[in-house]
Amino acid sequence: MITLALFNNKGGVGKTTLAYHLAHMVSRMGINVLAVDLDPQANLTAHFLDEDQLDDLWDGEVTASRQTVAGAVFPIVDGIGDIATLTPIAISDSLALVPGDLALSSFEERLAQEWPSTLAGGNNAAIRTTTAFHRIILQTAASSGADLILIDVGPNLGALNRSALLAADQVLVPLSADLFSVQGLRNLGPALRRWRSDWQSLARPRVPPSISSPAGVMNPLGYVVMQPSMRLDPMPRRVS
Question: Residue 227 has what pLDDT?
């Protein structure tokens, strides 16, 4: 099983679009794919499901029975337990979706608070919080028989994405053909190296065997230039 995250800390580069098309393309090659939407904007989920399905999925208050990522982490956010069982939505025979949720943003503060305690070790509640996404992915991948997990995350370097990317074996970076994307790429590399180093040297050695923990490898697979036609247009010039 391979876990691949699509990530760029600059938004609007076509990250979710690439994740959507990769999921369909690879699944049509006979490989079982699980698409995991860990972006609180939930755009990947909106790509896969129609408005009626989304309305049913996100209706009402968030509880542990809500079949989205926010529902799965609700017991941790509410302080009543560990991750809840989540059943992926079958898109086709070889493609399933772990739905995103706008309510997932409420998990960010909890993840930020628990990170120092996770690094220090000895606090199992903090470790369960930090490893929640990893364990949700393991559980849903097992239930769907996935060979490839594609993770879509939001465009930032916050605690939510840190926890999501720790669960990734590989990281693929979509880029737009512009200066801002290149600048964003320069911020991304040092952040991933720091997260990997902190996790592997400080946190993971202190995780008890009873809690499944990610390797935190986050190997950079490379980058994909999206929207190349932007560079075909003449550059704007100031008229004096």
Answer: 66
> What per-residue confidence (pLDDT) applies to 222?
86
User: Which of 49-63, 164-178, 184-198, 222-236 is most confident?
Assistant: 49-63
* The two structure tokens encoding residue 1: 């099983």
Domain range summary for the chain, segments of one domain joined by +: 2-228
Instruction: Pick 98 or 9 by higher pLDDT.
Output: 98
For the chain, the three-class secondary structure string (H helix, E strand, C coil) is CEEEEECCCCCCCCHHHHHHHHHHHHHCCCCCEEEEECCCCCHHHHHHCCHHHHHHHCCCCCCCCCCCHHHHHHHHHCCCCCCCCCCCEEEECCEEEECCCHHHHHHHHHHHHHHHHHHHCCCHHHHHHHCHHHHHHHHHHHHHCCCEEEEECCCCCCHHHHHHHHCCCEEEEEEECCHHHHHHHHHHHHHHHHHHHHHHHHHHHHCCCCCCCCCCCCEEEEEEEECHHHHHCCCCCCCC
Task: Classify residue 75 by its DSSP letter.
Answer: H
Length of the chain: 240
Whole-prediction pTM value? Answer: 0.91
CATH architecture of 2-228: 3-Layer(aba) Sandwich (3.40)
